[in-house]
């Protein structure tokens, strides 16, 4: 199909599609003349994925490109690929200095108290440190009890996720990378809605 | 203290503090002359809170102001205040049209299957609809089983949160509004780290 038909099929403007082509998020079509190219269903699927990462998940073009690059060229090590995916997602954190023996002491203590294996250079450790500091600054520090309550439920969710990882290596990477990006907004929306449900049942407001 | 001492106490530049004063996030100091004002510990605490909302939680200045306005002027209805807080937080979603009897059918079905009470105009319903659509577009639709697995754990977390809500009405609003904003990054970081823990124990990579 031509770019105009691709626009109709995806509900995007031709200008937006050209922008994603220029930015390298969408692979080029097959050239049919000096000024025209032909696109297929793979382009439609890719554009839907781009839109979901930028529109619904809320990633920047640069973050979406980093995630799509990992899906396209995952490398051999699933563990390292997951690490790169997490680095590409918000919140953006500074990597630790190489010579700092204990760059994220609060996150380390929290993870030790949960008994969790972790790589101190994994971006989520810095993200946890930053999140714990923000809770302190808001006057709502995360107690050991709250950490343990949250941690147990999120570990259940992680077990569920890993139990359903596809066997095929390429599919596993896609599941890991996209699942980190795409399921997080579901989890946040569900938590907000669970608050509403519990509050309503207890007769708070309304 | 003068603004220069406030800058030293918070690690922020005088220009940044003046910006937050202009934007109305920080309340003015007590004028001591035509060009100087005096600030106190309440300003230090407020600046730490502003920094945590903008820096760690990743809110825009506009979103942080909306959250701070709710903490400052919460109104009487805790339920409605929580609704406004959720509307102010990302992801930004369009409110439903008044004449649309079923604007978010997938979210409605999901919440009905979880047996949860919900207000269809609560922003998190639109956020859930958008998140479910993004998962579809990524080729990773949320199954009924996954929804139920996530939903049960997030409801446990919501129960925990509500059980610890302060009795004092002002403190309860602060807990509700700031807790929604500040605890979410903790939850996302913990989920990412739980994935790493479970993956490492199963010998994936490393």
From TrEMBL, chains A, B:
One Gene Ontology term of the molecular function aspect: DNA-binding transcription factor activity
HTH merR-type domain sequence ranges: 1-70
Annotated keywords: DNA-binding
SMART domains: HTH_MERR
InterPro entries, per the entry: DNA-bd_dom_put_sf, MerR-type_HTH_dom, MerR_fam
Protein name: DNA-binding transcriptional MerR regulator
Organism expressing this protein natively: Agromyces flavus
């Amino acid at each position: 199909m031509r770019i105009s038909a691709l626009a109709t099929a995806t509900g995007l403007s031709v200008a937006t599609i050209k922008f994603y082509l220029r930015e390298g998020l969408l692979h080029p079509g097959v050239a049919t003349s000096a000024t025209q190219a032909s696109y297929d269903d793979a382009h439609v699927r890719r554009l839907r994925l781009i839109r979901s990462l930028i529109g619904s998940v809320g990633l920047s073009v640069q973050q979406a490109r980093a995630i799509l690059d990992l899906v396209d060229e995952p490398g051999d090590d699933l563990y390292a690929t997951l690490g790169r995916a997490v680095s590409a997602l918000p919140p953006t954190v500074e990597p630790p200095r190489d010579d700092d023996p204990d760059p994220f002491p609060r996150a380390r203590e929290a993870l030790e108290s949960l008994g969790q294996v972790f790589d101190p250079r994994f971006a989520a450790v810095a993200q946890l440190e930053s999140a714990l500091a923000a809770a302190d600054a808001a006057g709502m520090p995360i107690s050991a009890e709250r950490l343990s309550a949250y941690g147990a439920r999120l570990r259940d969710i992680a077990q569920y996720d890993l139990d359903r990882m596809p066997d095929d290596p390429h599919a596993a990477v896609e599941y890991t990378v996209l699942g980190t990006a795409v399921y997080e907004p579901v989890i946040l929306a569900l938590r907000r809605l669970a608050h509403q449900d519990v509050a309503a049942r207890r007769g708070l407001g309304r």
